[in-house]
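The authors assume throughout that readers already know how a fold can be written as discrete tokens. A single example would do more here than another paragraph of explanation. An entry of this sort, consisting of the sequence and the corresponding backbone structure tokens, reads as follows:
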Amino acid sequence: MERPQDRPRYIAVEGPIGVGKTTLAQILAERLAGQLILEPVEENPFLPAFYEDARKNAFQTQLFFLLSRFQQQQALLQQDLFSQSTVCDYLFAKDRIFAALTLDQNELSLYDRLYEALQPRVVKPDLVVYLQARNEVLLKRIARRGRDYEREIDPAYVEALAVAYNDFFFHYDETPLLVVNTSDIDIVGHETDVEALCAVIRRHRKGMQHYIPGTTGR
């Protein structure tokens, strides 16, 4: 029988746009009877303009995300993370992935000064679950969720983002990491897929593991 102290206290779920971060975070929070922390995507007033003209609106969009995520993470420091599980649908460190893709050199230099001042004051998760999917799968999932401001999203941007995520997590070693290929599973409509994935997440304790559904790949 699983004991509460055996569960990761703080789990961050990550991955590119459309991969299913929020869906999995909601499922994990429910099954672990924990609190759910969602990044304030819908609250960013600059996001619709960013998708219309990324170059013109990237800097203010990125700063809003950086500061709002930092405020959420600061709130976590005030809580007792030992008393219950906490599941978050983002990792604070990933913010720079987006910044590097969208900001020019001068903007990125200014952004980095702010990021480097904030990052050490953020609590690290006990486990990061990184979700991957093929680009065509990401585009289908983005279309299926039907957000108005994502209708004109550039497929090349989604692909570049997925590549940047892969590179980031290839070098990531700050916490235990579980890499999950979600291209051929459905955590919305198939309970067996959900059960299998949750079981792997509960077991993972240290180092990096690759999970490919249908195998025990490491």
User: Anything to note?
Assistant: The first helix runs from residue 21 to 31.
